[in-house]
């Protein structure tokens, strides 16, 4: 259960950008994630018109899927290329605007207004900028965050959640001494201590 060799692992923002540039994105799922379909009822909990957050969203196809169901989707991603590919691959028109509170950040928003994707570091976001969310789909974010930043990440996520939020989290289980990640190994005990 010890995260062993991964404790001090660091993947820089530049390395993530390079993965997108080189199309080295084995983590992207063209068909969407089967676990979201399986647990969609848990996320929605019988509610309509939710605000759903996609941390480190990449170009996740589930963003369009949930928006088409009538939900508002907000994502954050450092790779502008990933965000532009998302809009292009779904033939969605969008507009781009700066985010005044975050130097160098952009918001790419579908013209329909129900998908807003922020191009910046997730740690630059706050509820005063993006509001709070009824649901979070964390499919590859916690496992991509550098292990030393997990507490910072979890604390931020908690501040972005409404009282009755549903948080769906996907992790991977393997021997962290045999693979260096990402995705990093996050033991269940750590998830419990991070999120309570």
TrEMBL record:
Gene Ontology molecular function terms on file: thiopurine S-methyltransferase activity
Reaction(s) this enzyme catalyzes, per UniProt: S-adenosyl-L-methionine + a thiopurine = S-adenosyl-L-homocysteine + a thiopurine S-methylether
Keywords: Cytoplasm, Methyltransferase, S-adenosyl-L-methionine, Transferase
Binding site for S-adenosyl-L-methionine: 16-27, 56, 77, 121-122, 139
Gene Ontology process terms (BP): methylation
InterPro entries associated with the record: SAM-dependent_MTases_sf, Thiopurine_S-MeTrfase, TPMT
Pfam families in alphabetical order: TPMT
EC number(s) given by UniProt: 2.1.1.67
Coiled coil spans: none
Top EC category: transferase
Main location: cytoplasm
GO CC field: cytoplasm
Compartmental location: Cytoplasm
PANTHER family with a match to the protein in the record: THIOPURINE S-METHYLTRANSFERASE
Family membership: Belongs to the class I-like SAM-binding methyltransferase superfamily. TPMT family.
Name recorded for this polypeptide: thiopurine S-methyltransferase
Annotated source species: Zapornia atra
Gene giving rise to this polypeptide: Tpmt
């Amino acid at each position: 259960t010890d995260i062993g060799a991964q404790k001090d692992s660091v993947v820089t923002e530049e390395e993530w950008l390079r993965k997108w540039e080189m199309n080295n994105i084995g983590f992207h799922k063209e068909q969407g994630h089967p676990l979201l379909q399986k647990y969609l009822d848990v996320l929605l909990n019988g509610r309509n018109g939710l605000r759903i957050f996609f941390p480190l969203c990449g170009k996740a196809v589930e963003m369009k899927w949930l928006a088409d169901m009538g939900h508002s989707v907000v994502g954050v991603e450092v790779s502008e290329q990933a965000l532009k590919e998302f809009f292009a691959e779904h033939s969605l028109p969008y507009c781009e605007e700066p985010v005044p509170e975050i130097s160098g950040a952009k918001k790419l928003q579908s013209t329909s207004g129900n998908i807003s994707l922020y191009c910046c570091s997730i740690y630059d976001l706050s509820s005063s900028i993006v509001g709070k969310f009824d649901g979070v789909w964390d499919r590859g974010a916690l496992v991509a965050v550098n292990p030393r930043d997990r507490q910072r990440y979890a604390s931020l996520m908690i501040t972005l959640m409404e009282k009755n939020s549903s948080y769906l989290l996907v992790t991977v289980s393997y021997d962290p001494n045999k693979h260096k990640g990402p995705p990093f190994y996050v033991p269940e005990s750590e998830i419990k201590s991070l999120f309570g």
